[in-house]
Design brief:
ten-stranded mixed sheet, Endonuclease, Chain A, eight-stranded mixed sheet, 30 strands, alpha+beta
């Protein structure tokens, strides 16, 4: 099916733009899939709030990075077309139009679906100031005077006070003012000149107040005799009390607005003498980058809007009129409100113990017994934390080496690494300072580790280190043994509860040798003569993927079993997609599980008839990368830190590792198969390049994430029953 004669291959141009979807529009499709979860009536109400909040934070980051990049390319006159045949200008125009439709759907969901449901089903209301009861108004006035007013900084603009710098992503209230003493003109300073905002024979002044980010955005009002919960937003309180900030003026109008700026750092690493200092300097500039999107409340006074448009230098197509509260990320705060437990998802069990490493077990002893495969967050991330913590105090441990891309705010792994250095162990840590939006966070951790005596590397020039690997070198009775942890996800104990990832513990010598080689390359650019198991980007990982895909193609042409299942976050690498098309045309069955961006099209006659693409958006964020190749009946399974994207394969340090143990290989394969069976959270790409929910008719219901959770519970219970009959020595810290 879908195969072609070998001689026809040369007549197909797999790089033809008609075979591809633009990357940015594909991302917007992904965010649309997240939004569809907020619109699902069979999801609990507060879960729907959560998903709507996520779409807002996703869109912010998309604009600060991807849209900002498009705008930079347009400004630079960049004319090269992307894989889908679009110039940067065409992409920017299409993205802004699609975003406008998306935002309309966001607020349609908020206004017409969620707000009425919250009020009618659980008695939760977000009220404007005008609807406060006398008792509520008294309470809000007291709150404003005691806590809000002292934190506000009103900034008027006149001949002596220039237009203020509006920080990225902050919520502000802009106002037009009229001096109370009649007949006097007020000069409005714009840039270096003096202008007036005319209203008849008078001139109006402009002022702005930033809504304090240090105060809660939502304020729960006092309980009323009628019951229910009523909330007012902080900007509503400030807006109503604007006259208290400008006593000599009448407030003609005031409206909230929010500015998005280019937040993509531009760092010349070759010229930077100190990468840490250079990134610190660039971080300060992020708040003042070029404006790329202005959100204003729908109905804003035209004179006020014209002032913002001129002073912030935004284009008309970059202005979004919002029918509701700006910045829907506040809904995540509502998600945490007490008293609504029944409106949250409770079917998922908390992370379970890893059966091979029961609580209190010696992690090294467990790894010596067998390779250990972990599936987070269904299985606990704690064994990974314990691995580093135990190594830090174990007298037999000589060295710990680790790569860190993103870690939690109060990271126990960082603390363990610092303790290890203080205990005299050799500790080498690569802290990737260029991890986007975590730069400041990682700079702080890097300094902490250096002070503790760790040898810290700030990443590599021109590359981001995105691999997830830890090496512990230990002296044992039979000599030196190397323990290795490899994973698809970050060493972040917080996100490990929310992201699906897989990890492997092993002390097999080939992995240990390769791990040593990885860290020697990172610290000293020393490449070994040979590698045993690991494949590394940007050196040869892409070539390895292309070889594995090509091998399936050759098996299909030879009439042998050929099948690819690949799970990842994004797929947009041109060479990989062309290889997949060629394999599909040869008859290889290709099943792709791609959470986010997918630029490949399905169902193209003679090209992609054998390819399916599905995306799973559920309770957890799908983050693992797992790859299955049938290989003529001798199947191979791999896990990796890399997606099939140019940035991962060409511009990052990434690792792929084989899952060689048969039982582990079966576990990983089962993860892929279960997600292909998913009928509840999966959406499937159609021949038109859009996504639709799975047709459930005649199919058994399957929520893969929920079933993984249940399986983890059953495995932990079985292991606990077995371990009650086996003495497990307590792990005692030493040193």
């Amino acid at each position: 099916m879908g195969s072609i004669m070998a001689g026809e291959k040369s007549r197909i141009d797999y790089s033809d733009p008609k075979y591809y979807i633009n990357r940015e529009l594909s991302w917007l499709q992904f965010n649309q899939r997240v939004l569809s979860e907020a619109r699902r009536r069979d999801n609990r109400l507060f879960e729907r709030l959560k998903f709507l909040s996520i779409t807002s934070s996703n869109l912010d980051e998309f604009f600060m990075v991807r849209v900002a990049s498009l705008k930079d390319m347009v400004s630079a006159g960049y004319r090269k077309r992307d894989i889908a045949g679009m110039t940067a200008g065409e992409q920017l125009e299409a993205v802004l139009a699609a975003t406008r439709d998306f935002v309309d759907m966001q607020y349609l969901t908020y206004n017409r679906s969620l707000l009425p449901a919250l009020a009618s089903e659980v008695g939760l209301e977000i009220v404007p100031y005008e609807r406060l009861t006398p008792e509520e108004e008294e309470a809000v006035s007291g709150y404003y005077e005691e806590e809000v007013y002292p934190t506000l900084t009103p900034m008027a603009v006149d001949s002596s006070r220039p237009f203020p710098l509006i920080r990225n992503k902050t919520l502000n209230i802009g106002a037009l003012l009229r001096r109370k003493s009649a007949g006097r003109s007020i000069l409005f300073r714009a840039g270096r000149g003096k202008k007036k905002i005319a209203e008849g024979d008078e001139a109006l002044d402009f002022a702005v107040v930033q809504v304090p980010s240090g105060l809660p955005r939502i304020r729960v009002l006092p309980s009323s005799p009628e019951g229910g919960t009523r909330i007012i937003l902080l900007e509503e309180i400030i807006r109503h009390n604007m006259p208290t900030l400008f006593l000599n003026y009448d407030v003609v109008c005031c409206y909230p607005f929010r500015l998005m700026r280019n937040a993509d750092l531009s760092i010349d690493e070759d010229e930077a003498e100190d990468l840490l200092k250079e990134i610190e300097k660039q971080l300060k500039r992020r708040q003042w980058g070029e404006a790329i999107r202005l959100e204003v409340e729908d109905g804003m006074d035209d004179r006020l809007l014209a002032t913002l448009e001129r002073e912030l230098a935004v284009q008309p197509n970059e202005i979004f009129r919002i029918d509701g509260p700006l910045d829907l990320t506040f809904l995540m705060k509502m998600y945490g409100l007490p008293g609504f437990d029944g409106q949250r998802e409770h079917r998922y069990a908390p992370p379970q113990e890893v059966p091979e490493i029961p609580a209190g077990a010696d992690v090294f002893e467990a790894i010596r017994r067998q390779d250990i495969f972990m599936h987070h967050p269904y299985e606990s991330f704690q064994p990974v934390v314990n691995f580093v913590a135990q190594a830090a105090v174990d007298p037999a441990v000589l060295a710990i080496k680790q790569t860190l891309y993103r870690v939690s705010g109060n990271s126990p792994i960082i603390m363990a690494l610092a303790r290890a250095a203080e205990n005299g162990k050799q500790v080498m840590v690569l802290v990737e300072l260029k991890a986007r939006f975590d730069e400041e966070h990682n700079i702080g951790w890097a300094k902490t580790l250096e002070k503790a005596g760790c040898h810290v590397i700030y990443g590599l020039v021109g590359l981001k280190t995105h691999s997830k690997i830890t090496l512990v070198v230990r002296r044992e009775e039979d000599g030196i043994r190397r323990y290795v942890h490899l994973a698809t996800g970050n060493y972040n104990d917080s996100t490990a509860k929310l992201y699906t990832d897989v990890g492997l513990f092993t002390c097999k010598e080939p992995y240990g040798e390769d791990a040593t080689a990885v860290f020697n390359m990172l610290s000293g650019y020393s490449e070994p003569r040979r590698w045993n198991r690991l494949s590394m980007a940007p050196l040869w990982l892409k070539d390895r993927f292309l070889y594995l895909i090509g091998r399936e193609r050759d098996h299909a042409r030879a009439g042998e079993p050929a099948h690819i299942i690949a799970k990842m976050n994004s797929l947009c690498d041109p060479a990989v997609m062309e290889a997949l098309y060629e394999a599909s045309a040869a008859g290889v069955k290709i099943e792709l599980i791609v959470r986010g961006i997918c630029c490949l099209r399905v169902g193209i006659p003679g090209v992609s008839e054998n390819i399916t693409v599905r995306s799973i958006v559920g309770n957890y964020l799908e983050h693992s990368r797992i790859f299955y190749f049938e290989n003529g009946g001798r199947s191979e399974v791999y896990a990796a830190s890399a997606d099939w994207m140019p940035r991962n394969l060409d511009r990052r340090v990434e690792l792929m590792f084989p899952l060689e143990d048969e039982a582990i290989r079966e576990k990983a394969y089962a993860i892929l198969c279960r997600q292909i069976m998913d009928t509840e959270q999966a959406q499937v790409m159609t021949d038109e390049g859009v996504y639709e929910r799975v047709d459930r008719r005649g199919r058994k219901s399957c929520n893969s994430q929920l079933e993984f959770s249940a399986e983890a519970v059953a495995a932990a219970q079985h292991a606990a029953a077995v371990n009650t009959r086996i003495f497990v020595p307590e792990m005692r810290p030493n040193g």
